[in-house]
Amino acid sequence: QEPNVTGYLCVGLEYDSESADLMVNVLEAKDLSSSDVNHPAHLPLDTYVRVYLLPDKSTNMQTRVYKKSNSPSYKERFLFALEPTEYQRRSLSFYVYATDRTSNSLLGEAELRLCDVNARQPVTTWLTLTDTGQTNTELGEVMFSLSYLPTAERLTVVLVKARNLKFQRESGDPFVKVYLLQHGKKVHKKKTSTKRGERSPIFNEAMMFSVPPHTLQTIHLRVTVSESGLAGAHAVNIGHVIVGSQCTGKALTHWTQMLTSLRKPIAMWHPLRSK
Fold this sequence. Notes:
Blueprint: E1 4-16, E2 21-30, E3 47-54, E4 60-62, E5 73-81, E6 91-99, E7 104-113, E8 123-131, E9 141-149, E10 154-163, E11 174-182, E12 185-191, E13 202-210, E14 219-227, E15 236-244, H1 249-260, E16 266-271
Parallel strand pairs: 7-16
Antiparallel strand pairs: 1-2, 1-8, 2-5, 3-4, 3-6, 6-7, 9-10, 9-16, 10-13, 11-12, 11-14, 14-15
């Protein structure tokens, strides 16, 4: 299954090997679209872009929010320190978010390997944005938002919805369990209500966990989508997602972006896996 294309992003790069500076210009985007059923495709979006110099996820830059446009013109430049000996080994990662009053949702992402770009001259290129949650989704997907409030030592998970769930029976009654794991052991567990016979249920249910800041590097969240059993039978797990600082890929991205934008919830789709 091909990833879902959600738009295109134009970026410019310029490298100064003498000062060891990489200049990244986030110029504009076009044809941005949201895969969110709550947001009709033709409605204009408020968006911003985050830029990471991989593999270091801690240094990231962010554009201002560009309002009410599916072809926004950001025209912002960012400077990353980058030694010439490191140039070939690094990549740039671009995340485009839609934002509203309540949360930020990932629209699409693109990666650019610097070894594919000539360091000796300025380069401008269009990148294809994809919603990576679309790939590898035999079991379905779940969307949830994460936010952390250090002053209250509170981690909030909002289970927004799921889509294309693969039930064991003809029609299932899905619900979601969220486990807080410390060093791999289950410390807390919460669950949503059950939705009757819905393959793409909408939950919009918040769960709060008490999490001291010093534990953030050692905890994980496990989000498990299940279908309730027939009268008296055990529930059956459809699939799960694990997010946390020890994870990789999108699960790590979601966690680190929660920690770097402490005020607003960050929402993403995640494909369910069985193992």
